[in-house]
Amino acid sequence: MNRHKTLFDTVAKRDYLGFWANETLNARGVADFLDLDKRDVAKVAGVSPASVRFDQKIPREVLDRLLEIANICSLVAQFFEGDVQKTTLWFRTKNPLLGDISPRDMIRFGRYDKLHRFVIAALGENSAAARAASDNATAAATSKAT
User: Fold this and answer.
1) What span, in angstroms and rounded, lies between the C-alpha atoms of 46 and 20?
2) How confident is residue 140, by pLDDT bands cut at 50, 70 and 90?
3) Does residue 145 lie within any of the structural domains?
4) 80 domain residue, yes or no
5) How far apart are CA 64 and CA 70, in angstroms?
6) From residue 113, how far is each of 41, 106, 110, 120, 130 by CA, in Å?
7) What is the dihedral of CA 128, 88, 60, 7, to 10 degrees?
8) Which structural domain, as residue segments, surrounds residue 116?
């Protein structure tokens, strides 16, 4: 049962960062949140900088990559309970578990997949630890009651 619950933990429960206003991705908002310029977006999407645009004619590769990046940003925001400042700080701060580079730079350097795996694993470990703590608290309360 728990395995199936974690299947859906790969998508944030809410749109904490406002990336999906009007039920469409605000691609420019994602790039702005991470302070990515057109060259950065082109690199992560594998397209030329001249083809990067954020309107209705956004290239499919750009949209797909920004959707993935927006999802990771939203998952991190969820971890920080919607605190945009903490989420921003996490993406911009060098992290020793990421080789002393920031998550933002991992995205800029084309290491999105590694960051994605890192975030999903960390959130899974955090959920498991929270469930164990809850189970322990319930067991302690039950033993006190008896």
Assistant:
1) 23
2) low
3) no
4) yes
5) 10
6) 15, 9, 8, 11, 26
7) 10
8) 2-137
Percent of the chain with pLDDT over 70: 82
**What is the count of structural domains for the chain?**
1
DSSP per residue over 41-61, as a string? Answer: HHHHHTS-GGG---STT--HH
Tell whether 120 is covered by a domain. yes
110 found inside a domain:
yes
* Structure confidence by residue, pLDDT tens digits, 25-57: 999 999 999 999 999 999 999 999 999 999 999
**Type of residue at 109:** F
The span from the CA of 20 to the CA of 36, in Å, is 18
Q: Quickly tell me which residue has 């809410």 as its tokens.
A: 14
pTM: 0.82
